[in-house]
Write a structure and sequence with these properties.
- This protein is α/β, with parallel strands linked by helices and about 160 residues long.
- The chain has a single domain, classed as Rossmann fold (3-Layer(aba) Sandwich).
- The protein contains 5 helices and 9 strands; from the N terminus they run βαβββββαβαβαβα.
- Strand 7, helix 3 and strand 8 form a beta-alpha-beta unit.
- Helix 2 crosses helix 3 and helix 4 packs across helix 5.
- The protein is globular, with a radius of gyration of 14 Å.
- About 45% of the residues are buried.
C-alpha cells in the first residue's frame, strides 16, 4: 500500500503542519482552501497545491476536504474537539467518511501506530488532516509532525 496523499485546508496550525510535512517528505499533497486563499495570517502561500472553493468560507473548505478524501484524521493537543475541529468530525459523519481523533494524551509512537492501523483498515489513499489553528494550539505543529514522522518511518 502506498503512503496516502495528504490534503488539508491551508489554515495555520494543523493544516499547514500537515502540508509542510508532506512537502518536506515528497508526499503528494493538495486540498481545498477558501476563495482568496483566506487564512488567519493572510493569504495562503502558493507553494501549497490548494484549490479555492467558490466562497471565502472556512466551513465550505472543510466540508469539501472531508468529502473528497477517503478519511479524516483530526489532531489536537486538548482531549476534546471544539469549534472547526468538532465541525470536521460531524461533517465526516454526514458524508459517511471514517474519522479519527488523535490527541497529545498519547505519545507520537502510540498515535503513529493508531493512525497506521486506521489508514490500512480503511484503505486510505487520500487522507484529510485537520485540527485547530495555530492561535488556538500553537504547540500542535510539532506534535503533528512527530506523529507523521513516526507513521512514515514505520510505513511498509
Amino acid at each position: 500500500m502506498d503512503f496516502p496523499r495528504i490534503v488539508s485546508g491551508g489554515q495555520t496550525g494543523a493544516d499547514r503542519a500537515a502540508l509542510d510535512w508532506a512537502i518536506s517528505n515528497d508526499i503528494p499533497h493538495g486540498g481545498w482552501c477558501p476563495a482568496g486563499r483566506l487564512a488567519e495570517d493572510g493569504a495562503i502561500d502558493s507553494r501549497y497545491n490548494l484549490q479555492e472553493t467558490p466562497k471565502a468560507d472556512y466551513l465550505q473548505r472543510t466540508e469539501w476536504n472531508v468529502r473528497d478524501s477517503d478519511a479524516t484524521v483530526i489532531f489536537s493537543i486538548k482531549p476534546d474537539l471544539m469549534g472547526g475541529s468538532l465541525a470536521t468530525q460531524k461533517l465526516a459523519e454526514k458524508h459517511l467518511k471514517a474519522s479519527l481523533h488523535l490527541s497529545s494524551l498519547q505519545s507520537p509512537a502510540e498515535n503513529g501506530t493508531q493512525l497506521r492501523g486506521f489508514i490500512r483498515k480503511h484503505e486510505v489513499k487520500v487522507l484529510n488532516i485537520a485540527g485547530p489553528r495555530a492561535s488556538g494550539e500553537p504547540e500542535l505543529r510539532s506534535f503533528i509532525q512527530s506523529v507523521l514522522d513516526e507513521l512514515f518511518q514505520n510505513w511498509e
